[in-house]
Amino acid sequence: MPNMPEPVVSRRGVLAGGAATAVVATSHASARTGDRPAADPAPVKVSFKVNGERHDLTLDTRTTLLDALREHLHLTGTKKGCDHGQCGACTVLVDGVRINSCLSLAVMHEGDDVTTIEGLGTPEKLHPLQAAFVKHDGYQCGYCTPGQICSAVGVLDEIKRGVPSHVQADIAVSPAFSNIELRERMSGNICRCGAYSNIAEAIADVAGEKA
Amino acid sequence: MKAFTYERAHDPVAAARAVAARPGARFIAGGTNLLDLMKIEVETPVHLVDVQDLKLDRIEPTDAGGLRIGALVTNTDLATDSRVRRDYGVLSRAIVAGASGQLRNKATTAGNLLQRTRCAYFYDTNMPCNKRKPGSGCAAIGGISRQLAVIGSSDKCIATHPSDMAVAMRLLDATVETVNSAGETRAIPIADFHRLPGDTPHIETALAPGELITAVTLPKPIGGRHIYEKVRDRASYAFALVSVAAVIQPDGTGRVALGGVAHKPWRDAAAEAELPRGARAVTAKLLAGAKPTHDNAFKLPLAERTLAAAMAEARTTA
Predict the structure, then answer these.
(1) ipTM entry
(2) What is the DSSP code (8-state) at residue A72?
């Protein structure tokens, strides 16, 4: 999640934590925890479309949509950054809406229509946002780029659909594209190389606006 | 992540029954907070009941002139709804002040109310935490507590509730509607929904095990200027240090609730009565009895100044 708690390590805390492990959980807590079966549960079947193609998978329930895409379907364009919804590298479109694929279980996507970076364009025929990222040099290492581009596809659609944002002066009116809107709406995608200004130029170019 | 079994429920009572029948079972909707916590094994459900097919994703007018918001309405859809933006602007504003676009697309209305604290010691399984492991102690007390509660805390827990949406819901006197495994329904005023930590910080809401939120209802609109001011360490995608939800009427009366200061959204009728006398008078009453730590004492003057900013904004946009 955003603004994850800062790592807290102190000698005092570590010592206190070590001592605390000896404390027996209350009966209330164990009732909430429940009994866990000794054997792992059986894998579960799930079917969904990725980039127009239907896939039938049998997965451990713990498999995230991100791991299903990367490890099972070998669509490695979608990246694993933080795996906690903080960095946006795993952003994909599900039924046209951008989400963090790391924070969603694959088995919850029965019947869904998933679009990844591989489904947006091809090397021969780039999606306009892909072409714009190349043109404006909207990356350095490129690791966050698939997530940035999928997120940008979602952002442009959200503005078109009138989804409001924090930076609007009047929440009741339809939003208009601007650099400040773009920065707010893309805040769930982190670029540690710091290519933000070029990313904004690329998205603005596709939106037909000035960044 | 610990292993778990999974089922997809098709009606609310069946979902409640599935969770009530199995100790350690949990509902899952958007999953944005639950899965995050499952990955670090702060949450370790043995069974997940997926509620996405329960058809609780509509926003409908109520007979009382308000709105009934289905439990599964996403944060994005709720913030975008034209009736919410027109009549309950503080709610739209609070929602878009929180999380990221990707998270708001997945997070639900009920899930937002039920999200867990972001206290660093709750997340760190090497640390004692009475909320995560009852009886183990609180590493936050005497630890790094800049983000944590200044009021309503106990000697067992100083966590804050992280939601922005819940602060607006509290301001608007929302009601949480639920159903249990016997099919019994109840309506819980939002003021009674979130609990203070007391001696049992692991019990965070008024919900019984297996009780499912079906909707959150809003009373009829109250007019006034709707403001949500959030102060945080960066301009976007961060939790509140302090937030102020306010509805200010033309005569200077109104309502105020604070986020980022307590284990629940913080509101008090006697403090609201001071609104015509200014921010200092309001926060003096609202935060009377505050017990800040060395790290977070700044939240008291910050709350006053944030409220003053909200009141100034209400005057300029009136």
Answers:
(1) 0.97
(2) I
Contact: A104, B31; criterion CB under 8 Å: yes
Spatial contact of B89 and A171, defined as CB atoms under 8 Å apart: yes
Q: Do A103 and B36 touch, CB atoms closer than 8 A?
A: yes
Sign of CA dihedral B276, B277, B280, B281: negative
Nearest of A57, A175, A112 to residue A99 by alpha carbon: A112
Instruction: Tell me how many degrees the CA angle A91-A96-A98 measures, rounded to the nearest 5.
Output: 25
How far is the C-alpha of A145 from the C-alpha of A189, rounded, in Å?
9
Q: Report the Cα–Cα distance between both ends of chain B, in Å, rounded.
A: 51
Which residues of chain B are within 8 Å of residue A3 when distances are taken between CB atoms?
A: 118, 232-234, 237-239
Best CA proximity match to B295, nearest among B128, B148, B117: B148
CB atoms inside a 10 Å sphere around CB B289: 8
Question: Inter-axis angle of helices A128-135 and A196-207, to 10 degrees?
Answer: 140
8 Å CB contact between A108 and A99: no
Put simply, the chain B residues between 152 and 191 with a CB less than 8 A from any chain A CB are none
- A80: Cα separation from own chain's centroid: 9
Q: What would the DSSP string read from start to end of B172-201?
A: TT-EEEEE-TTS-EEEEEHHHHBPP-TT-T
Euclidean distance between CA atoms B234 and B53, whole angstroms: 37
C-alpha to C-alpha distance for B33 and B37, rounded to whole angstroms:
6
pLDDT by position in tens, chain B (length 318):
999 999 999 999 999 999 999 999 999 999 999 999 999 999 999 999 999 999 999 999 999 999 999 999 999 999 999 999 999 999 999 999 999 999 999 999 999 999 999 999 999 999 999 999 999 999 999 999 999 999 999 999 999 999 999 999 999 999 999 999 999 999 999 999 999 999 999 999 999 999 999 999 999 999 999 999 999 999 999 999 999 999 999 999 999 999 999 999 999 999 999 999 999 999 999 999 999 999 999 999 999 999 999 999 998 865
Q: How many CB atoms lie within 10 A of CB B36?
A: 26
Residues of A in contact with B121 (CB under 8 A): 5, 8, 13
CB–CB contact A3 B137 (8 Å): no
pTM for the whole structure: 0.93
Report the distance separating Cα B262 and Cα B163, nearest Å.
11
Helix locations, chain A, DSSP H: 11-20, 27-33, 65-67, 117-120, 128-135, 145-160, 179-185, 196-207
